[in-house]
Amino acid sequence: MEGTVLAPAIEGMKHVKSEDGEMLTKPFLDVCKHILPVIDKFGAAMALVKTDVGGNITRLENKYLTNPTEFQNLYSMVQVEVAAKKAKDSSSCTNSLLWLTRAMDFILELFRNLMEHEDWAMSQVCSEAYTKTLKKFHGWLASSTFTVAMKLAPERNKFMDVVAGKGDIRSDIEKFCATFTPLLEENHKFLASLGLDDMKA
Questions:
Q1: What span, in angstroms and rounded, lies between the C-alpha atoms of 155 and 158?
Q2: Which of the four, 34, 118, 137, 150, has the lowest number of CB atoms within 10 Å?
Q3: What span, in angstroms and rounded, lies between the C-alpha atoms of 22 and 75?
């Protein structure tokens, strides 16, 4: 494999915004799909995250495919649901976008921890990222399950070797975090403007 595991996601981020600055559905979902192989490298520790992310991508993609013109912009799906008073349903695209964004926040925080805390074991890298991002939205059961799963995180150096491939992993993690963070912040800002950014599991 040429480059790091993050390289396809970094490349994909260049196409997420339209010329007039709108967040585009398919390119955004494609970037999230490129994160799935990254999540895979964590093995059993991230099985729950992978299932969750995959399910949310599928729901949003299926909605997009019903009318690619109407749903070309990511937020149009949410606007349609808000108008129909369905945005807060557990099976809504709004809910999927919110949880997909939160899962990506978690992955970003995890990579930040890897860069900033070189003395941390992988289980600490994961659990600290979880505490900072997802934990406050999870109930007791989800939180307990997650905490146990984090203990299955792979050994740090082994993980870094696997995600590095033939590329410069430190440089790519920095690029990934710098480019993806503002996109996720924009999702949160949009959802918050509709009072939909604080829904819990």
A1: 6
A2: 118
A3: 9
Cα 110 to Cα 197: distance, rounded to the nearest angstrom: 21
Q: Cα–Cα distance between 164 and 140 in angstroms, integer?
A: 35
Q: What is the pTM of this model?
A: 0.95
Question: What would the pLDDT profile of 14-25 be if each residue is shown by its tens digit?
Answer: 999 999 999 999
Contacts of 44 (CB under 8 A, 6+ apart): 149, 152
Is residue 40 within 8 A of residue 159, CB to CB? The reply is: no
The rounded distance, in Å, linking the Cα atoms of 67 and 78 is 14
> Tell me, what amino acid is at 197?
D
Cα separation, 41 vs 115, whole angstroms: 17
User: What is the length of the chain?
Assistant: 201
